[in-house]
Amino acid sequence: MQIHDLIGVGFGPSNIALAIALDEKRQKGHFVDALFIEKQPGFVWHRNMLLDNAHMQISFLKDLATLRNPSSRFTFLNYLHEKQRLQDFINLKTFFPSRHEFNDYLGWAAAQFEDRCAYGEAVFEVVPEMKGNEVSLLRVRSRDANGAVRERLARNLVVSVGGVANIPARFQPLLDDGRVFHSSTYLEAIARHPGADRIAIVGAGQSAAEIFMDLQSHPTKPQVDLIMRARSIKPSDDSPFVNEIFNTDFTDFVFNRSVNERAELLEEFWHTNYAAPDLELIQQIFNVFYRQRVAGSTRHSFLRRHEVSAVRAAQDGIHLSLHDLNTGARHDKAYDAVVLATGYARDAHRTLLAPLASYLGDFSVDRDYRVQGTPALRPGIFLQGACETSHGLSDTLLSVTAIRSDEIGQALLNATPRHTAQAPQAPAAERPAHAAPVV
């Protein structure tokens, strides 16, 4: 069984950027044998939120490579050049491509590493491979769509699994009811309810705003209620000085602060990334409600300062008990579908790495995103997109992706130095889950 220098869990933007950084290091004579494992059958980025007219909130210059290496062949500009759209994009006069186009860019980059990615396999466990009292290697266990389990060995691991849908406690008993679903499954889920006349959206962020605009223009003309605890929809602050918190050098500033100072920074700038849609989108929503007032229509409702106090499933719909926090009034309303635009949790790595928990302490990481394990843990375990509390708000965004991938790549080279000439030529071997351990 081949022992990989690195196995990456997930093949979204973070690990694609890492694959690019490692490829560019290989061209300079430094080799890391890396394999990535992705649960989706092929690359797609937030497929259920690829809405018409949805655009990126981050400049295209914060792509997979530009901030690290503007001359890389994996920049968004080179993608446009190869697709013969560069001049037309320039004529758009925008820094913010459509989400559809950026998904195509990411897929274009991912396609150049298909020989280094095992698609259609979900990693469900990482277990220690012991040599004496030390963890010498990591055994990565994955399951394909047919239920077959595969095992691979790695000297290092990078976990880039993204966020997991955050479901408020009141809605969790209804997770098996198809009428209640998270925004991460929006397009697929709403297609199963073509006759839905009454739809609720719970949330106050970009996803909630985009879904509201998508539904209000739907040909079936459903009635849509936008429900949030906030008094108003607050725009994201993307002014120049505030945007400096997403600069790569700000990562050093955050990391070198005390725990309390980091928490204060996260609180101060929280609305730059959470519950804060683009101003243009907010203006579009305001215009929808204004036009309703002109027409004397009540098709859509903006239920601000409302809290969902109880949820009940019935034959005639999902009943939400709504508490008006301004007046104290309570009322019950039934919906054919409820969309939870309630954000994401970033702790899936803890479940995945549970068999290694005794070696990982509190999962704190060093500056290079490596979990600070016990001395008995020899392999390096790196986290991407799960270090917001230590590295800042940019950790879950594209802003630092190109630079972070280079930092992790260099840490991997330092841990497993090997010249390109030493690179193995044989393809990665696999073995059934029941085979004898390899040490």
From TrEMBL:
<dbReference type="InterPro" id="IPR036188">
    <property type="entry name" value="FAD/NAD-bd_sf"/>
</dbReference>
<keyword id="KW-0560">Oxidoreductase</keyword>
<dbReference type="Pfam" id="PF13434">
    <property type="entry name" value="Lys_Orn_oxgnase"/>
</dbReference>
<keyword id="KW-0521">NADP</keyword>
<keyword id="KW-0285">Flavoprotein</keyword>
<dbReference type="GO" id="GO:0047091">
    <property type="term" value="F:L-lysine 6-monooxygenase (NADPH) activity"/>
</dbReference>
<protein>
    <submittedName>
        <fullName>Lysine N6-hydroxylase/L-ornithine N5-oxygenase</fullName>
        <ecNumber>1.13.12.-</ecNumber>
        <ecNumber>1.14.13.59</ecNumber>
    </submittedName>
</protein>
<keyword id="KW-0274">FAD</keyword>
<dbReference type="GO" id="GO:0006879">
    <property type="term" value="P:intracellular iron ion homeostasis"/>
</dbReference>
<comment type="pathway">
    <text>Siderophore biosynthesis.</text>
</comment>
<feature type="region of interest" description="Disordered">
    <location>
        <begin position="418"/>
        <end position="439"/>
    </location>
</feature>
<comment type="similarity">
    <text>Belongs to the lysine N(6)-hydroxylase/L-ornithine N(5)-oxygenase family.</text>
</comment>
<dbReference type="InterPro" id="IPR025700">
    <property type="entry name" value="Lys/Orn_oxygenase"/>
</dbReference>
